[in-house]
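Task: complex structure prediction.
Instruction: return structure tokens for all chains below.
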Amino acid sequence: MKFKLGCTLNYNVESLSTFVFNIRVVETDCQKILTEQLIIDPDIRIDEYVTPIVENRYFRVNVPGGTNLNIFYQATVEMNHFYGDANTIAEVQPADLPVETFHYLYPSRYCESDRLHQLALSEFGELTTGYSRVTAICNWIYEKVIYEYGTSNPHTSAFDTATERIGVCRDFAHLAIAYCRALNIPARCVAGYAYGLNPPDFHACFEAYLGGRWYLFDATRLAPQNGIVRIGTGRDASDVAFATIFGDILLNKMDIFMEHIPEGNSSEVPELTTEAISIS
Amino acid sequence: MKFKLGCTLNYNVESLSTFVFNIRVVETDCQKILTEQLIIDPDIRIDEYVTPIVENRYFRVNVPGGTNLNIFYQATVEMNHFYGDANTIAEVQPADLPVETFHYLYPSRYCESDRLHQLALSEFGELTTGYSRVTAICNWIYEKVIYEYGTSNPHTSAFDTATERIGVCRDFAHLAIAYCRALNIPARCVAGYAYGLNPPDFHACFEAYLGGRWYLFDATRLAPQNGIVRIGTGRDASDVAFATIFGDILLNKMDIFMEHIPEGNSSEVPELTTEAISIS
Amino acid sequence: MKFKLGCTLNYNVESLSTFVFNIRVVETDCQKILTEQLIIDPDIRIDEYVTPIVENRYFRVNVPGGTNLNIFYQATVEMNHFYGDANTIAEVQPADLPVETFHYLYPSRYCESDRLHQLALSEFGELTTGYSRVTAICNWIYEKVIYEYGTSNPHTSAFDTATERIGVCRDFAHLAIAYCRALNIPARCVAGYAYGLNPPDFHACFEAYLGGRWYLFDATRLAPQNGIVRIGTGRDASDVAFATIFGDILLNKMDIFMEHIPEGNSSEVPELTTEAISIS
Amino acid sequence: MKFKLGCTLNYNVESLSTFVFNIRVVETDCQKILTEQLIIDPDIRIDEYVTPIVENRYFRVNVPGGTNLNIFYQATVEMNHFYGDANTIAEVQPADLPVETFHYLYPSRYCESDRLHQLALSEFGELTTGYSRVTAICNWIYEKVIYEYGTSNPHTSAFDTATERIGVCRDFAHLAIAYCRALNIPARCVAGYAYGLNPPDFHACFEAYLGGRWYLFDATRLAPQNGIVRIGTGRDASDVAFATIFGDILLNKMDIFMEHIPEGNSSEVPELTTEAISIS
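Output:
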């Protein structure tokens, strides 16, 4: 399945400011970049940083005051989704987890799995383990948490959302991640482009490590799982903000776009599914 | 039903200290003091304060340094419980609530009903209203929250317990109160002597205002509801601590005792019940 | 000093709703109501509730759906301020406090004095006790906390503000109250009309119990202390909201007004002052 | 300067359990391992994991039930401290920071720099920037936060400590880290062996990125900075726990030891210093 996606970001920069952007998609075994274009206007040198292992592609731009900064990013991406059999995907015990996944068991700023331990046990501890347990977590959140813009803020964490029961995509992801970690399932935050999101926006969902690989989940049901293209992964949203900005700026415009590129020989289309999908 | 109850408290007082005790039982339409004895050794003058409306009976003692302070309190109390029909007790709408009960709808230190609003709605919003809804809240807490000494602390609040799902009697009461208030049911904290509590201790439970009066509830199921004798009520435990102490002291001993006094002509005995009981 | 003050509140009431208003001023030894007018349009019966001791004057209105509700309140008030000598006003030890003031030492929803104990000791524990210590608390807050609309929300408490250092008048009052209580100084929240507030609004400040009476403090410095007329007092803002509303409504208009009525024979004018003022 | 250090850990393992240990020291430009010994009794295979960049040396052991597990670790380490000139070490602006240090500007579980932003600005925002500002942060914490065992718990975070003003070494480190990040100074948690710590224990302190490298700071003043040997670094204590355990175990014994090995030709001794030291 192929997508054309990207964004335009436009800022007024009042005084010398530093931007760290995280808007370019990564390459994985399942996600291949066919074409890519990044236009920075005015043409300012960028410093790139690719994180070890997960290979997020951050770049920094230092912008003088008085600049109107325009960032245009566009890529065409081919997704070769890995489809697992949801019925047979097991949880991996700590004894067998790849040691590098342990960091995704630890609590993070917005996913206080340590404080959610009893709640996770009480709600999900008795369930059959495996892929279906993470699905149950997603269903629980979908059913019990209200999706509403403007109800949470950048400080809102899973501990808040567990009780306040209202939030947006990052809050849904954070709560799911915290629940997974509390049950000893490694989980991490995914920032991405999401097909069909209305209004278009950057999206946050999550991956859980099950049956030997990272599977994609989205408790919001706002986008088809096979329509999500990864920008980056991290412990939580603090790692994968699309922009971290130091300075005095004004955001004028933020347009995100994403199209499905139909292919003659493929019947796969972006759709909500209960199949187990991995893009890692 | 009659009870003999009381306590012995013994403190070493290192330097001039002020104690505010809240250990004497109140009189209500349902709770009559037959005999009562308060012995303070050494014999220090007390300042009494009876709160308006709910008539908690605080007393203050100022104790010089170097004192071994012994407080002995004993009372025999006759309880004439009001038994309502749980099936017909309705919630009272804000339009009809006595205006003085509104204060028990507001959030308090340990019962952040404002932050628990969505959670309460999500868990109990669809239930049939009335006495049974408060019972459902108690059952929910009993089933989902672990009762274990030493797991919470004096700062623990309903917002914590909603997620941490572990605590002691005051945590159970605070969570229930917060849920009730979030559903517009006035609720308040009850401190009391509780028959059969093992080990003997001061107990915390709660009252909800339903069908025109305050009914007693206890989500811990650790004592029979008709075996609870009220010391005081308040917004939460901050109002009804058995002792508030200013100074440098050491608690040596705290013995609480309570006996049922059998009566020839009564078949009522202290027992766990699903009947609606009021002691107000 | 005389003031004419009041408010107009206008609501669209979509469905049967209950309002509890707290907009009328109280009478105290220092605050006398000369004239008063309350017009409710349409003319709906009110239920009044005057709280014990502090005598807040709540009233409830039950309003049918489809109503445009207009509340007009106006009063002329004569203030006979008690002026104390700030240099000689001492703190009152727990041994000597009137027992009914102890409730204002306990933590409340938005004033978690229990959690602020060490911070209060660290910042103010070494200062000379008395009126000047509460002034020091006010100065600390004025200097370290930024006053900015829209930065806090109804859940924000003193524990948040102690660290986040930004908020509005109720946040300033809550933090000051929490600090006072942590230092064993009874403190309570005051809701009132405030002369010269720009834009006009209901105001929150606080009183501390010192030298045998309640003195008025305002860490915001946004209004002259002798220009504040009390609506009510409570443990914190949860007790003295100007309106508590149950139902589906829309606030159309909220106008608050306050004028100083000059008197020929008085030289007292509303002004910021460092004198110790009591209106209780 | 040379040290001999290590630990003995003894556990009763009730049922099949997984341990991830983080007790071995790392090698850096300043820290060289001369000899090293790890004895696991019974002799169970370990899985090692060295993290990218910072090279923490985690290892996992899966231990059958019924085992008495004994871990003995010992190393001799040569420290070649980098000494900077505290007076000339500047902060590095976001425009010039190595992009891989940005992760240490983001908030983490126990270092909510996002919520401490205003507090950090209020307390340290006006100070001269550079090494001395981080020293000022350490002094502030040393002076205002009480060091006392048993006063904090594993959930305690910088946001709590900022107000509660009491805690242990990890709380001191977390608060300092949060302050640094709030001021745009990258900061990270260091777990290590600390010379002269009494009682001997694993220690937590922190590093701040200044003047182009990571400098070591310890707000507790409980150990000489040049007597600290690094086990690992991470965003906060959640990354560098000495043991993460999945299973039912009992810790019998935990002995940490550390000796200074005098060298004839060196006058450097472990001592509290105000010099700028780096071990990275």
